[in-house]
Amino acid sequence: MSRVTVEYQWDRSEYLRVIRKAALPWIYRYQYLLGVFIICVGVILDIEGTGGTSLFIYVIGVAYAVYMFSIMRFATAKSWTKAVGIRGPITVEVTDDDVSTKSDAGDTRLNWAVFPKAKEWSEYYFLMRNRFFVTTIIPKRAFESPADEAIFRNLLRAHTSSKLIPNGPLDGGQESPSVAS
Fold first, then answer.
1. Is 106 left (phi over 0), alpha (psi -120 to 50) or beta?
2. Selection from 80, 108, 114, 79 nearest residue 92 by Cα
3. What is the DSSP string of the chain?
4. Taking Cα atoms as reference points, which of 127, 130, 132 lies closest to residue 90?
5. What's the pTM value of the predicted model, to 2 decimals?
């Protein structure tokens, strides 16, 4: 039976960087772009010479962009304060049967069916749960050895539809069947 155990701890800046850049679906990270689009519409109306309408569109676009950008910054910062169990040590044990997590908040043991997808970024692995916005994030720095990371990657391939970055040494010299987007 394959088994990998990793232990790590978040600091506030790393946690917020990961949450803001990776954990949220792109549509939620970039909602302020609708405001930029509205500003562009204002520019087009201004070029066409519609007068006061373009100023109104500018103001709405800027207000919306600033509001959405601020909300996303403050909401993720508040998640550090409100989230239970992320400030202390976190231990994740991954086996052929399940994924177990231990933190200050408690212990969970979930079978692989709960994690239909996984993806890899340059510094992190994400185990995506069936529920929207719920992700187990494992920093690559938590693996004690390349052999442990290779076992983990094999478990991801066996139990999830994974998007992994091809890595010859960790993949046993074989090409990874899934490539990160």
1. left
2. 108
3. --EEEEEE---HHHHHHHIIIIIS-HHHHTTHHHHHHHHHHHHHHHHHT-THHHHHHHHHHHHHHHHHHHHHHHHHHHHHHH-SSSSS-EEEEEESSEEEEEETTEEEEEEGGG--EEEE-SSEEEEE-SSTT-EEEEEGGG-SSHHHHHHHHHHHHHHSEEE----TTTTTTSPPSS---
4. 127
5. 0.73
Q: Which phi and psi (to 5°) does residue 96 adopt?
A: -65, -25
Tell the residue number behind the tokens 């006061």, with chain if given.
52
Tens digits of residue pLDDT in 102-116: 998 899 999 999 999
pLDDT digits (tens, 9 = 90+) for 100-159: 999 988 999 999 999 998 988 889 999 988 765 678 899 999 999 999 999 999 999 999
